[in-house]
Every structure is written in structure tokens, then in C-alpha cells.
Amino acid sequence: MKYRVKVYRKGLVVIPAEVRRKLGVYEGMILELRVENNSIVLTPPKTLKDAFGVDGDEALKVAKLIVESRKKEVEKEIRS
After folding, report:
1. Strand (E) positions, the chain?
2. What is d(CA 45, CA 30) in angstroms, rounded to the nearest whole number?
3. Is the residue at 2 inside a domain?
4. For the segment 25-35, what is each residue's pLDDT rounded down to a tens digit?
5. Rounded to an integer, what distance in angstroms lies between the CA atom of residue 62 and that of residue 55?
6. pLDDT band at 37 (very low <50, low <70, confident <90, very high)
7. Which whole number is the average pLDDT over 41-65?
8. In total, how many domains does the chain have?
9. What is the pLDDT of residue 49?
10. Is residue 3 part of a domain?
């Protein structure tokens, strides 16, 4: 489907609500912008959950454990 959107001051463009809902785009979200053959392509970045599919929830838990573990290591190194 094609949409026509207006470019406002400072390059602001409004993404139609239908597209935002379909792609899960929300206020404050960071989108990836690429230029491909004279076209602008905006895409929501993939999350860890997207990358790991059905194991996404477990992957997020593991990633959080790794981050917490590394924080503790850094704190320990700083105190030494």
C-alpha cells in the first residue's frame, strides 16, 4: 500500500496511524533509517525477542543475567 505524507519543518514526517499500529511503532521509539536507491526506508529495529523467536523470553532473561553479572564484575574491578 502507498501513502502520501507531508514533510514538515526540520524534516518531520507523520507516519499514518494504520502503519504505526501494523508495525508496532510507538511514540519515542527509535527507528532505523536507510537510503536505498533514492528511497528512504524506515524500519523498526529487531528486538532480542524477535531474533530468538519462540525462545525470545528466555533469551531476554539470559541477556539480563549477563548484563547484571558484568555490572558486578565492573564494580569489583573498580573497587580493587
Report:
1. 32-36, 39-43
2. 8
3. no
4. 988 888 999 99
5. 11
6. very high
7. 76
8. 2
9. 63
10. no
